[in-house]
Amino acid sequence: MSSPVSNEHQARYDIHGRLHRPMTEGKKPMVSAVDMAKKYGDFIALHPLNVQVHAGEFFGVFGPNGAGKSTFIKLLTGQLRPSKGRIEVLGVDAVDDPQKVKANIGIVPESESPPSFLTPAEFLEFVARLRGVEDMKNKVEHWLEWFGLQEKRDTMCKDLSKGQRQKVMLASAFIHKPKLLFLDEPFANLDPIYQRKCREWL
Known about the structure:
Elements: E1 2-6, E2 12-13, E3 19-20, E4 31-40, E5 43-53, H1 69-76, E6 84-89, E7 92-93, H2 98-103, E8 106-108, H3 120-131, H4 136-146, H5 162-174, E9 180-184, H6 192-201
Parallel strand pairs: 8-9
Antiparallel strand pairs: 1-9, 2-3, 4-5, 4-6, 6-7
């Protein structure tokens, strides 16, 4: 599953599956895509679609392998340029200014790992500096402790288990407390305890 997540109040549905937005009516969406599509030559990676995600909503994308879920995420996060359509994220045009979009969101890409030549502490410090996180040292230690990585803080990431590397990636997305998170298969390698812990934090 791939999902953009905004950190406020969860959207609610009635018994007929209709979405209610009592706290977002009339407000500008955090994510807006109009007629967004992606082609590689004659191959259609993503058919045109329209999307709106408001503050407080958990928006999930489900589908088989190759359905375009990761392409969808990469388009919204400025990692890919659409073949057509308009995309706005947090009020920023993701086509014209993808770097500004990336600076204001948190991302956990599919099957991504932290650099093998860094330790978890070094990688989180690097991300915190890039993000301009205040009280960086304490924030790094907080997330290492939150994910149970204190004993692995100085271990090279290449020597961590898949689950531990996934925890480092999640910590790097959470460390600056972004208003919007894009998570692509975020819990694939986590044990049930940390899957639940992350869901509760979100």
